[in-house]
């Protein structure tokens, strides 16, 4: 935990009111040491908004984030919930509905650029709608978008104009889902940043939100990204994050497997085909993760001998930092269209109508589940 500057009489940002700290750039309230001499004294996030029309992401843990969410239900707000299509179940805010009350929610599904160009987007939209229903999330509207490719953002801005009325706009999401890119686009389109950043805060709020003034006196409220520990993006080291999170469109890898065969995804996860007729499995993971096939009977020894070398990423040093593997077994019904989803790593689509018994080994705490196939 960082000590705030000035101990008990902590120095606060004159932009958003957060306690200032000089140690960790990714956490709320960060200010470079040399910037403490400037007037006004504002945190790096406020500085970037004010001077560059650009917000940067900060993160808080689940408990802090839930405190922030708890305030939205009592506001007159439009909520933009941004999720990562590559890690949909891992980045969706579970229970959001009970926090936002009757306020309308726009679901912005980011990173559609990662799916193959031949994707049927109507089917993807239907899939998202079904997932929202299963998770109890009511949405005013859904937009498929790509922050990286600037796709779908005009549609999203139209939705904001349609549903905002006299409301403030709260933007919520997990870390690494593209939230700051969305905030920056909203700032460019809606905010007159010749105004000073607001120094007033809503009564009772914690001081981890940044209120960005809009031309009509309302605000875009930039909330910190929530850290969900069940995602690979929160578990791997910074050097391995680039390998785990794909930057380019996914190239599905199809493997014809007999029962008793195993696929290793680097040293990050393992997939066992335990029982069933010969069938194909399609892997949707980052192109920088090497997939190795072996016999199930050799899988334990292969990992013990080659994790961090032949099986990589991560390297041997970072393999040692991962929690022990937990085994998740699934029985796939005949005729079902099923993905085995591994949060932050991707998913494996079962292609056969024959049914199968499979297992996934992943570090303890990583979310592994089955779902209706996305593609």
UniProtKB/TrEMBL annotation:
InterPro entries: G_CP_dom, GTP-bd, GTP-bd_ribosome_bgen_YqeH, Mito_lipid_metab_GTPase, NOA1/YqeH-like_C, P-loop_NTPase. Residues 62-229 form the CP-type G domain. GO terms for molecular function: GTP binding. It comes from the Bacteria. NCBIfam families: GTPase_YqeH. This is GTP-binding protein YqeH. It comes from Paenibacillus pini JCM 16418.
